[in-house]
Structures are given as structure tokens and as C-alpha cells.
Amino acid sequence: MSNPATRYIPNTITLLNLLSGCLACIFAFRHNEMVGGLYGYEWVYLFIGAAAVFDFCDGAAARLLHQPSPIGKELDSLSDLVSFGLAPAMLMFNLMQAQQGQLVWVPYIALMIPAMGALRLAIFNVDDSQATTFRGLPIPANAIFWIGFCGWMQSYRVYPGDWVVVLLIILVSLSMVSRMEMFSLKFKNFGLRDNFRRYIILLAAISFVAIYGIAGLAWVIVLYFVLSALTRRHQA
């Protein structure tokens, strides 16, 4: 029999993920305003980061407390769609709209991010083969990439142009629903042999952020693509 005192803990943590994503969406529309000593886009980074922490902790709590549930799985996907699909899309939408380009429709291409993210999550939920490896870019990794890319634009005060950003949005969004095999970034133990690629990603994240700041997160996801591709080629 489940313990009533612990039954709702995992889902509560998942809801904190969702609320973090909602706050990130709100601050995305205030991206150039100073709020509490930080710009709006910096709050977006923080809230998406908080959502990622909650996303990791809810599954760990469910396993530790022996409280997995079908509702928890569905709630996790709904929360991830907001925090890692809609929130980075709203950030990109507002940053692109601020450029005041001639093509007024361009910022709306950012909506492809949550659309493909929703499809990716739906596929994941019905695909039992994705227990240890993924097919397509996981939606949290998608959010990390956009934080890094936005960080690059803000740090260097550069905008690569509407068509470059549109192409990038299309490619990254489609990568979420691609059939490319990608290894899971979650640690199930801390052994070096089982987690060699994960430790590479972790060390690279620390190094890239130390060198490039938030912009380094985009390079972490690029490395994730490369390592996944090399692993697939080696196995073939």
C-alpha cells in the first residue's frame, strides 16, 4: 500500500517544473526589461534551468519513494512541453520580433518548436524502445540549445539574420522528431564505463560555459549530436 504522505511528492515536483515553465513564458515577453536586477531573458534562462532540475528530480523521487504512476508520466510530458517547448519558443519569438525585420511572419516560425516538441513527446510516450536510448533530440536538450543560442546573440550583440534563424529553428525542431538514435543524458549509476559519454558531456558543459558563458550551452548540444552520431556509426 502506498504511503499517503509520499504519494503526491513526485507529481508536486512535476508541477513545479510546469510552473517554472509558465514563469519563463511570462518573462520571455519582458526579455529586455530589467526585473529584480536581471533582464527578462536572464529570468527565462533561470526558470528553464529550474524546470530542468525539477524534471530530473520528479523521476528520481518517484523511483526512490516507489510512487510511479501513469498520471505522473502524462503530467511530466505536459510540463516538459511548456517548460522546454513553449518557453524557449516564446523567448525566440520575442527576440526575433525585436529585430523588426521586413518579414513580419518570421517570428511565428518559432511556434514550430513546441509543435514538434509535442509530437516528439507523444511519440516517446508510446514507444517502448526508448527506455535507454532516444530517437530524436530530447525536448530538454532542445531548450538548452536555445538558451545557448539566445545567450550567444545577447552576449555578442549580434543577430545572424532572419533566414539563418528560421533555418536553424526548422532543423532543430525537426531533429526532435527524427529517427536519429541519441543516448540518454540521465545517470542511472555513476560508473565510468556505463556513463563515459555522459561524463564527456558534463565536462564539456562546464568547460564551454566557463569559456563562452551561457552561449557555451549551444555547443554542448552540438557535441551531443556528434557523440550520438559517432556511437551509432561505431555500433553499425
The amount of helix comes to 55-70%
Mind telling me the C-alpha Rg? 18 Å
The number of helices is: 9
Shape descriptor = globular
What CATH calls the topology is Four Helix Bundle (Hemerythrin (Met), subunit A)
Query: Low-confidence runs (pLDDT<50, min 5 residues)?
Result: none
Largest sheet: 2 strands, antiparallel
Query: What is the number of independent domains?
Result: 1
Q: Looking at this structure, what is the CATH superfamily?
A: CDP-alcohol phosphotransferase transmembrane (TM) domain
Summing up helix and strand content along with how strands pair, one would put the structural category as: mainly alpha
DSSP strand count:
4
CATH class: Mainly Alpha
Order of helices and strands: HHEEHHHEHHEHH
Condensed summary:
This protein has one domain: CDP-alcohol phosphotransferase transmembrane (TM) domain (Four Helix Bundle (Hemerythrin (Met), subunit A)).
Can you walk me through this structure?
With 236 residues, the chain is mainly alpha-helical. It has a single domain (4-180), classed as Up-down Bundle (Four Helix Bundle (Hemerythrin (Met), subunit A)), CATH 1.20.120. It has helices at 4-7, 9-28, 40-64, 70-97, 112-126, 139-156, 162-176, 196-212, 216-235, and strands at 34-35, 38-39, 133-135, 181-183. The strands form two sheets. A two-stranded antiparallel ribbon has the order 1-2. Helix 2 runs parallel beside helix 4 (70-97) and helix 8 (196-212) runs antiparallel to helix 9. The protein is globular and about 55 Å long. The mean pLDDT is 88.
